[in-house]
Amino acid sequence: MRILHVIELLAFYLYEVVISNIRVAYEVITPSHNMHPRMIYVDISALTDRQLLAAANLISMTPGTLSLDVDEARTHLQVHCMYADDSTAKDLETNYLRRIRRVF
After folding, report:
1. Which domain does 69 fall in, by range?
2. SS3 sequence of the chain
3. Which long-range contacts (CB under 8 A, 24 or more apart) does 46-49 make?
4. Residues of the chain with pLDDT under 70
5. Residue 37's closest CA among 12, 75, 68, 16?
6. End-to-end Cα spacing for the chain
7. 99, exposed or middle or buried, with CB in 10 Å at 0-12, 13-18, 19+?
8. Which residues, in sequence order, are bridge partners of residue 81?
9. Total structural domains within the chain
């Protein structure tokens, strides 16, 4: 069963990387400015150290996002997003962190 979760995480991540690459490339080659950069804080209080390491690295390796810092209480991960809105932090928690918890 765990192998299915690994495959799901890999498929989801590859999809996210492809979509993010297309979005960033489009931003670079067009004269318009469609970015909405923002610092967001993702709740990581339920993650183990290993899960946090995986999450921070996967987020940083996705074009347009960068993991910056973990607060001193170890409850939130600060992430810079090129394309952010009000639901971005919740989307990261739902999409990335849920899958990472199941694999690690």
Report:
1. 2-103
2. CHHHHHHHHHHHHHHHHHHHHHHHHHHHHCCCCCCECEEEEEECCCCCHHHHHHHHHHHHHCCCEEEEEECCCCCEEEEEECECCCCHHHHHHHHHHHHHHHHC
3. 46/97, 46/101, 47/97, 47/100, 47/101, 48/104
4. none
5. 68
6. 13
7. buried
8. 38, 65
9. 1
Q: Give the C-alpha separation, 76 to 84, whole Å.
A: 17
How many residues belong to the chain? Answer: 104
CA distance 41 to 33: 24
Cα angle 61, 7, 85; round to 5: 45
